[in-house]
Amino acid sequence: MVAPTNPRVYSLVGLSHKTAPVEVRERLAVASGELPQLLSQLKAQDGVEEAMLVSTCNRVEAYVYGGAEGAESVKRCLAQRGGPGAENSLYTRSGGEALTHLFRVCCSLDSMILGEPQILGQVKDSFAGAQEAASIAGAMTQAAQAAFATAKRVRTETSIGSSPVSMASAAVELARKIFGGLDGRTVLLVGAGAMSELCAKHLSEGTSRILVVNRTLERAQNLALEVGGIAHPWEKLTDLLAEADIVVSSTAAQRPVLTVSMIHSVLKQRHYRPLFLVDLAVPRDIEPGVDKLENVYAYDVDDLQHVVDQGRSAREQEAKRAEAIVAEEVERFLRARQVRDAVPVLALLRNRAEEIARLEVEKTLSLFGEEELTPKQRKSIEAMGKAIVNKLLHFPTVKLRDAGKAGAEQAAQVAGVVAELFDLHESDKPNPPAAAKPNGAAKAGEPERRPAPEPAAAAAGRNELEPS
Amino acid sequence: MTHLLSFASHFYLFAAILYVIYLVKSHPRIAQVGRLSLAVGFTLQTVLIVRSFLGYGYTPISNLAEGLSFLGWLLVGGFLIVERFYHLPIIGTFITPLVVGVLLPAVLLRDEQGHVANAIKIPGMPVHIFIAFAGIAAFALATGVSVAYLLMERQVKGKKFGVLFSRLPSLEVLDELSDKLMRWGFVALSITMISGSIFAHRAWGDYWRWDPKLTLSLVGWLVYAALVHARLFAGWRGRRAAFLTMVGFVILFGSFVGLRLFPTGLHGGDFQ
């Protein structure tokens, strides 16, 4: 028959930039529109009680909670969706490993760019999506929230998120170290490339002024419109240099457009105010030697990349401390679950028994007319119902508590047996009296269905009883 | 001087250690405790100075040890004020070691009882001395900030980033703060020079004498006058300004310490 215990576990099936090339990732990626449908598809799989789906450009991962066989069925489902090549890229983790993975992802320890801050928001979105689609309940909610809390702890206790992760953010970081606030600064864009636009968006803040200059005025005007700046003809470049605090250059010119003599000529006019030059062009727009000038700081793509690399090694150092925090938090979460695991079964059992007693007492009392029983007699019948429940549950209560104290495995085992025997589900927990009835109805169907899927997915039978 | 001074300087030393730790391990609590420790030391030293003033009737700046400890007191007070308005505890990493450096000889030399010079009993003289000290303290603070600026600037320019890069405030903030402190120092120094020449006229009959201490002070004043001018009208800032701030301070500090150690002139260790 059914295995004596069928402890439910967290599982993860997915692929990421570490295992799959972008062609595979994009085939599997889930658009937000189809998320609810896919979530309900996942939830319908054998052994899946709760499902959450994280889909970003670097990873597609399904986190599920339920029977141990859930991972297999989810894997089949994802492999089918991802088409050829996907199956080999999929990895599966279960139990503590699945949780560790979730925590690491949230802390950006599994990201392509270590410590990049977006991933936490993306997982939070996935969590919200799953909540909306009602594909998760208590267990996954607890895990996700613990992961978010861990991510927050990592952010505050390590400096993994404080060094720049991209050239644009490196440029912003440098600008801040030169000017302090970027509010009210003048940003000059030389050349109207896509990189200029990106950088301008990063660098402009509050009341900052954006000036755009380009060989063809029309493109300058287009970009100026895009970033909320003012376009100027190319001839005014030198005048504009006198006004700017930050210059971002990305022209396609073959020779430097910002020469040493040009910058030198405006220094005095600028009253030697600091000038931060960012050269995003290859070949370079800024003549080497410009950064020898006083209060002029020039960075080309290599320099910025170097800043990013330095940031990366700093983040790698911090990642070690973050890993320790993750291990600690996963451990803490699992320990908390052990205790919870034993206690809910007890609560559910008591709930169920009291519910039955209440219904039976009501039924009995309804057989008598209003006059036939004295209030005292009614009270005695009610008390009898309660007494039977208490006497009957005395030993199971003691045994379950003992098992909970004895350790995780024993607790899970005993709790599993009890849950199995009494057909208890976590979803029974909220106790509107009506909830007991559909459950009872499902129970009636149980004997017919159970024997059929005997060896293959014996335990999966449990899932078909899912009241929803 | 009493043991109260060495008691106070222990608090300064503790604060300096905390501020250096703060550089490496940037936890706000460390700087908070450091500031508290400075404040306690400052209060103790204030008690000492007030007691000396009321009890013996003179500001305790009659010999080198007293002068140095008075300077340390002003530095701590100045830093606490700057910290109050700028919230830059990291500046403490540059200032507190200076405080300890100034206080240490003061504590070691404190038994050498200097006789109270007659000059200090001239009405108004303590004010002249106090303003002179305040000026030096302001220049010392400006120099500390300038050192921070130069270290930071080297990292930004050289594209090599160490611990300081992530801890220090921006170049503009450092430059502005250094400028402000330097201007206060310049005002104090100017007042000192003018009041000094008035005293000189009374004591020696001349407004100016080419005494080594006075000459060095004049050179320091000229350096700062040039710097104030260049900052205002020629747009000087950053590295050059930071260097000049340091140079001016070295000259003035030299005139303060060096000539007290080797009193050769009229206006020196003994205030004769």
Distance between the termini of chain A: 25 Å
Number of helices of chain B: 9
| Biggest beta sheet summary of chain A | 6 strands, parallel
What's the oligomerization state?
Answer: heterodimer
Taking the alpha carbons of the first and last residues of chain B, their distance comes to 22 Å
Specify the structural class of chain A: alpha/beta
Most extensive interface: A-B, 24 and 18 residues
User: Quick check: average pLDDT of chain B?
Assistant: 82
Strand content of chain B: under 5%
Order of helices and strands of chain B: HHHHHHHHH
| Low-confidence blocks of residues of chain B | 268-272
State the helical fraction of chain A.
55-70%
Task: Please tell me about this protein's structure.
The complex is a heterodimer of chains A (468) and B (272). With 468 residues, chain A is an alpha/beta fold. Chain A has helices at 22-28, 35-43, 70-82, 86-89, 96-106, 118-132, 138-157, 167-179, 194-203, 217-227, 237-243, 260-267, 301-366, 375-406, 408-422, 436-449, 461-464; strands at residues 9-16, 50-55, 59-66, 91-94, 186-190, 209-214, 230-233, 246-249, 275-279, 296-300. In chain A, the strands form two sheets. In chain A, strands 7-6-5-8-9-10 form a six-stranded parallel beta sheet, with helices on both faces. Chain A is elongated. Chain A starts with 8 loop residues before the first strand and ends with a helix. The model of chain A is unreliable at 1-5 and 430-468 (pLDDT under 50). Chain B is globular and about 60 Å long. Chain B has 272 residues and is an all-alpha fold. In chain B, helix 1 runs antiparallel to helix 2 (28-56) and helix 2 packs across helix 3. Chain B has helices at residues 3-24, 28-56, 64-86, 92-108, 125-158, 163-167, 171-204, 212-233, 238-261. Chain B is built from nine helices and no strands. The chains are: A alpha/beta (468), B mainly alpha (272). Chain A binds chain B through residues 159, 162-163, 174, 176-180, 268, 270-274, 291, 294-295, 297, 299, 303, 306-307, 310, and chain B through 152, 156-157, 159, 161, 165-166, 169-173, 235-240.
